[in-house]
Design goal:
By secondary structure, the protein is mainly alpha-helical. It contains 2 helices and no strands. The longest helix is centred in the middle third of the chain and has 27 residues, at about 5-30. The termini are far apart. About 0% of the residues are buried.
Length: about 50
């Protein structure tokens, strides 16, 4: 290990910010119809009621 903990923290923060930007971009694209909205999962309670 190289002892540069500041770089590890910077890398971690950068990855968090990148994932936020990707989610925001996907939300904008879905709102404008440029990307399909993923299907929603069915609640487990409804699956067992039959």
């Amino acid at each position: 290990m190289d002892g540069r903990h500041d770089l590890a923290l910077l890398y971690g923060k950068s990855m968090t910010n990148i994932s936020k930007f990707v989610k925001e971009a996907a939300d904008i694209m879905m709102e404008n119809g440029w990307m399909e909205t993923p299907p929603e999962a069915v609640e487990r309670g409804h699956l067992n009621s039959n």
